[in-house]
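Thread: Newbie trying to understand structure tokens

Hi all, I'm a second-year student working on a class project, and my supervisor (Dr. K.) asked me to get a predicted structure for one chain before our next meeting. I've only ever worked with sequences, so writing a 3D structure as a token string is new to me. If someone could post the tokens and maybe explain what I'm looking at, I'd be very grateful. Here's the chain:
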Amino acid sequence: MKIESFDPYHIGIKLNNVNFQIFRQKIIKTMKSLEMPISAKDEMPFNVPIEILTSDGETRIELNYSSLAINTIGNDPHKTNELFSKLTKVLTTIGYELDSLVIFYEVQTNINIKLDTSPLELVSKSVSCNLESWKELHSGVSVNGIKIELVDNELGAQSLAIVVYPNPIRPKHYLLVSVRYQHIEDDKIIDFGNKIEKRVLNLIGSLGKKNA
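---
Reply by user tm_fold:
Sure, no problem. This is what the structure looks like when written as tokens:
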């Protein structure tokens, strides 16, 4: 069992209402002062939902005008974390107060895991339920996914949703773990990214085992 890829690893920053033209100008100016490569043109694009501001080929920062968000995206949690940290530094250097600017931070990722066993069998055996009456419809009826969520979160500071199921494109050998995590503190997002690989592998390794 091994993690083959994150497709992709996405850290979003949901923003309070800002003037995107001024916001964009300030960010690009500060990125230039920090010698970050700039992909954006001088003029703000018209009628474009997403604009890439900076990219090093592995990670990028983009403005999502339609979602009122600025996102850090890559294929490696640690490298994406590094660029995310630079972005929060850019925002504070400009003079923004993150507590007022940011509604929440969000990690979204789809993790491809290669298995030595059948993903469908692994998922199915991890859930104890009687499907015999349903198998009367078709013998192929089986548990095909597991959903895990943070519940009873009174403070509303964070949310978590995990869905585990065979990869629809490569169901014989690959498991897909879809993860969404929100928090109102940026350091919690960084910590989440630093530990996600270990947590996911521990979770998948425990499937089908008693008292896991």
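A couple of things are worth pointing out once you decode it. The longest strand covers residues 2-15. The radius of gyration is 20 Å. Feel free to ask follow-ups in this thread.
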